[in-house]
Specification:
The chain is mainly β and about 650 residues long. It contains six helices and 33 strands. It has an eleven-stranded mixed sheet with strand order 1-17-18-19-20-21-33-30-29-26-27. Strands 11, 12, 13, 14, 15, 16, 25, 28, 31 and 32 form a ten-stranded antiparallel sheet that branches.
Length: about 650
């Protein structure tokens, strides 16, 4: 296993290069000077202000550089005001400075860490802990859960709050999520730095048994589940590429076996793909996670407000892990750093935030001529581009796969630790599953929405829904075995809100309005749904309007660079109505237009005992597959495998 350590060659003139550390520092300095900012001004996100799509598509390396600009979300604690700014890095001046009324920006890194000390210092919380027999408050873990929307008292114009929850370690460093403090809910004013309310709904005994996955506690007697030693029957696997990888990298531009794309990274979205194309033909202009939403299905006081937007209320980019060779990725690896900002506006580099490598992906195609015994087989390969983030107790891995047959796949890998609750001894939870005595995992769901700014052979695209259905009985179907596909053109935003339908094998094609294949049909890519699930919460739930994008799995909107997030720009403490339901209100035409496809997919988590104490990876995602984009199998030119692929 080897890693590419040498620095890449920067192509800073490209308009989509992520901001450098120097550019982030410059943007903050210019804003401080021109707006006369004080220490109460906190920098939430500093990211590239991307030029208009038309300008980027019209740009060539021979052309003059497009202006470099930074987009800044800033929060002033003194005035409790959110601002958006655009700073010209080319001219070192502020181009716009706009207050945004009635919103709260995401919880910041400094708030993430300060919340614990604020809660631990509160006498009411301390007294509640003593009622549970806890005297050493340094063992308490405080997770700063976003407040959700529970009623007018959460009005974002009135105050900036979080509702942190408490767990207790048995010893320093031990797995604290094994001992939740059930029934204790705290409200923290993040601006004032103080607890404003403590609600104690009654003492539930702390679960007695540890549930560790780390040494030295892993092998202790009484651990749940019991592990005596590491197994010794795991033979090593070595993945090597003696001639190096098949990809080339220049700055953030990647070329690989016909594919070309650019790697982007923002503090809110994390990994972004730009200008994805094959053999010089465009497919997707911008692909990004547009929101992720995690609603819990337990009405108990400690869990009822747990419905979080991990992207819009925190930001998955600044929570990205520094990835480690041989652990998170294996093979011949190229890493990309993620450059974000701290709340003073200084740059922070997350080393190895994005990992890229190649994988064998099984058989690409095969046929055996049974008459002659001749066998032809080719092995498929994929380029893996991934990032992994830690959001409190959970880990999420976001994986983009590009395949040698032209397929694009997006997969989310869910792992980490379940958010736990406690019940009295002998009690069976009604809205969760016991994973250890007195310890349970509440029912919950994870919804991910991916935004796909499509450019299938150009910006003029049409989205078509394709259903399969039995043909009607009659002379054309005398044996009852016939079935056909039916096309529905999604001509406007009012009709382009669609749901998966396995009974009709439903999928959606994004077709070029300008180019046809050798067979005369529009060239296209098909969005193929994977496993999915609708929301389990009632449409009348007080928080339901906050995640309107989960009402349907597919939405199509007219391209608009300002409409980037499925739940809106500021879901924190917001009652709802933002995002996709608002974007489609104008019912813009879509046929033959520049369109954005939004796909929402859900992971349904009825917790199992096997998910404790750390959860085995589960996956969910979807595919974009060529559907008439090529004139035949695009992987016919793959070379045969060498005979030494078979060993004894």
């Amino acid at each position: 296993m080897t890693a590419v350590e040498e620095p890449t060659v920067a192509t800073s003139a490209h308009p989509l290069e992520p901001l450098t550390a120097d550019e982030i520092g410059t943007a903050a300095a210019v804003l401080r000077e021109e707006q006369d900012l004080t220490d109460s001004a906190r920098f939430v996100f500093v990211t590239l202000h991307e030029p208009p799509k038309s300008a980027v598509l019209g740009w060539t390396p021979d052309a003059a550089p497009l202006p470099r600009e930074a987009h800044v979300v800033l929060y002033d604690r003194a005035t409790r005001t959110t601002y958006e700014a655009v700073v010209s890095l080319t001219d070192r001046t502020v181009l716009s400075w706009t207050p945004v009324d009635g919103v709260q920006p995401p919880i910041m890194a400094e708030e993430f860490t300060s919340c614990e000390a604020i809660v631990q210092a509160d006498p009411r919380w301390q007294e509640a802990m003593r009622r549970r027999g806890i005297q050493d408050f340094s063992l308490a873990m405080i997770d700063p859960w976003a407040s959700s929307w529970t009623g007018p008292e959460d009005d974002p114009s009135a105050r900036r709050i979080a509702r942190p929850l408490t767990w207790v370690r048995s010893a320093p460093g031990e797995h604290g999520y094994a001992r939740p403090v059930e029934g204790l809910v705290v409200v923290v004013d993040l601006d004032a730095g103080e607890v404003v309310d403590v609600a104690d709904h009654g003492v539930v005994p702390l679960p007695a048994r540890p549930g560790n996955y780390e040494e030295p506690w892993l092998f202790e007697p009484g651990n749940v589940p019991a592990v005596e030693a590491h197994r010794t029957d795991v033979a090593p696997i070595s993945i090597t590429q003696p001639d190096g990888p098949s990809f080339t990298v220049e700055g953030h531009a990647v070329s690989w076996l016909g594919w070309r794309l650019r790697i982007g990274f923002t503090p809110r979205e994390g990994l972004v793909l730009h200008e994805v194309g094959y053999a010089g033909r465009p497919i997707v202009y911008r692909a990004s996670l547009a929101e992720m939403y995690v609603p819990y299905g337990d009405p108990a006081p400690t869990h009822r407000f747990k419905n979080v937007f991990d992207q819009g209320e925190y930001g998955v980019g600044w929570l990205a892990n520094p990835l480690t060779l041989g652990c998170d990725c294996v093979g011949h690896i190229h890493y990309f750093d993620g450059v974000v900002n701290d709340n003073d506006g200084a740059p922070v580099t997350i080393p190895n935030a994005v990992c890229m490598h190649e994988e064998d992906a099984g058989i690409a195609w095969k046929h055996t001529d049974f008459r002659t015994g001749a066998v032809q087989v080719r092995r498929r390969r994929r380029l893996v581009i991934s990032t992994i983030v830690t959001v409190g107790n959970y880990e999420y891995g976001y994986f983009w796969y590009l395949y040698t047959d032209g397929t694009i796949e997006y997969e989310v890998k869910l792992t980490g630790v379940i958010s736990t609750g406690a019940v009295a001894p002998g009690e069976v939870p009604a809205h969760g599953t016991l994973v250890a005595p007195g310890l349970y995992g509440p029912h919950h769901q994870h919804f991910f929405c991916v935004r796909l700014d499509m450019t299938v052979d150009g910006t003029a695209n049409t989205v078509v829904e394709v259903d399969s259905a039995p043909s009607p009985p009659g002379p054309a179907n005398p044996h009852g075995n016939a079935w056909q596909t039916h096309r529905t053109v999604l001509a406007g935003e009012s009709v382009a809100q669609r749901d998966v339908d396995a009974s009709r094998a439903r999928y959606w094609k994004i077709e070029s309005a300008e180019r046809t294949s050798a067979l005369g049909a529009p060239t296209a890519y098909a969005l193929m749904p994977g496993a999915n699930v609708p929301p389990m919460y009632s449409a009348d739930a007080v928080f339901a309007p906050r995640a309107g994008f989960t009402r349907h799995q597919l939405w199509v909107t007219a391209a608009d660079d300002t409409q980037r997030y499925a739940a809106g720009d500021y879901p924190n403490q917001h009652p709802g109505g933002q995002g996709l339901p608002a974007y489609i209100a104008g019912d813009r035409p879509l046929e033959g237009q520049d369109v954005v496809v939004w796909y929402t997919f859900g992971a349904h988590h009825v917790v199992r005992p096997e998910d404790w104490p750390v959860m085995p990876v589960s996956t969910v995602g979807f595919m974009l597959r060529p559907s008439g984009f090529f004139d035949g199998n695009p992987s016919l030119d793959l070379p045969p495998s060498a005979p030494h692929c078979h060993t004894t």
